[in-house]
Write a structure and sequence with these properties.
Elements (H helix, E strand, L loop, with lengths): L2 H13 L7 E7 L13 E6 L2 E5 L5 H10 L12 E3 L5 H4 L2 H10 L6 E5 L3 H11 L1 H9 L12 E5 L3 E5 L3 E7 L9 E7 L3 E4 L7 H6 L5 E7 L1 H5 L3 H10 L3 H11 L3 E8 L5 H9 L6 E3 L7
Parallel strand pairs: 3-4, 4-5, 5-6, 10-11, 11-12, 12-13
Antiparallel strand pairs: 1-2, 2-3, 7-8, 8-9, 9-10
The protein binds zinc ion (2 copies).
One zinc ion binds next to loops.
């Protein structure tokens, strides 16, 4: 093979979309409670052999999935969103839950949504269904053709740490993380035929993430900027330090775990910038890093 062909192949491999991999990580929403119009609420899709598994349901999750479908990932067509895992019940991670339960159902999803998450998820879902009781009644009895036969919209599993799901494509492990005063907050590990992906959810620095990500291919981890943090008020600093992970703390975690790719998401940047945030992590970690934007695919 001549040198030009080798160079072209190297370049192709460097930029090749993950479409060639059996497992893709699709960043549907990378946001936080901040109402950043460029970042929808937290939601990540793991797509394996054409089937999607969602983590969290932030604001706009179904619209973002539809955008990913339009960009070439058919597994994220709204009617195909059938399975989700919820890290914890903070509103930024669950404001899209009604959307995820109901919109695909209206669009003729052919099975109920199956969701697993921490204690309290069932009550949250029951309240949402109660809030939409009139909608459910009209759609199932008011002549709409789609829902005459199976009005079940959602099935909920409140879960404990451990392997919480497996099928022929993926094994999903839930592990506890330390997120301030939450009694239960999870990170998730997805093991597929070709990749291991660990998603931190919201967490302070936690060695249990490191245990899950030994030699993992992709670590999707929340982070806040130390420069932005320095300009916050002391009360907020105390809060953020209890609930979240700083750029320097994340660099130390990455150094110990050496993921194939470190993906920053749920970036709390405040008055700093995304470039500055990346610089902060890079100053103490020399592995491969990206700061995710909505609809990025890895
Ligand atoms: Zn959050
Ligand atoms: Zn949270």
């Amino acid at each position: 093979m001549n040198r030009a062909v080798v160079a072209a192949l190297v370049l192709l491999c460097a930029v090749a979309p993950r479409a060639q991999s059996r497992t893709q990580v699709v960043m549907l929403g990378t946001g936080t409670p901040n109402a950043d119009p460029d970042r929808f609420g937290p939601a990540v899709a793991i797509v394996v052999d054409g089937v999607s598994y969602l983590v969290d349901a932030g604001v706009g999750v179904v619209r973002r999935a539809a955008a990913a479908e339009r960009a070439g990932i058919p597994a994220l067509a709204p009617a195909k969103l059938k399975r989700a895992f919820i890290t914890h019940l903070h509103s930024d991670h669950t404001l899209g839950l009604a959307d995820l339960i109901l919109s695909p159902w209206v669009l003729e999803r052919d099975a109920p949504l199956e969701i697993a998450g921490p204690r309290g998820l069932r009550s949250m879902v029951d309240h949402l269904l109660a809030a939409y009781a009139e909608d459910l009644k009209i759609r199932t009895t008011g002549g709409e053709p789609a829902h005459r036969h199976d009005p079940t919209v959602v099935r909920v599993l409140e879960t404990s740490p451990g392997v919480i799901f497996r099928d022929e494509r993926v094994v999903v492990t839930a592990f506890p993380v330390k997120h301030g005063s939450w009694e239960q907050a999870f990170g998730f590990r997805f093991q597929t035929a070709d990749r291991t992906i660990v998603i931190s959810g919201d967490t302070g620095p936690d060695s249990r993430i490191e245990e899950q990500c030994r030699e993992c291919d992709v670590l999707v981890h929340e982070v806040y900027s130390e420069a932005g943090f320095a300009k916050r008020e002391p009360e907020w600093q105390a809060y953020h330090a209890r609930y979240h992970t700083s750029s320097r703390q994340l660099a130390a975690i990455a150094k110990r775990t050496r993921p194939g790719l470190l993906v920053l998401y749920h970036q709390l940047i405040w008055s700093s910038t995304e470039d500055e945030l990346l610089k902060e992590v890079r100053s103490a970690y020399d592995g491969k890093i990206v700061s995710a934007k909505d609809l990025d695919v890895y």
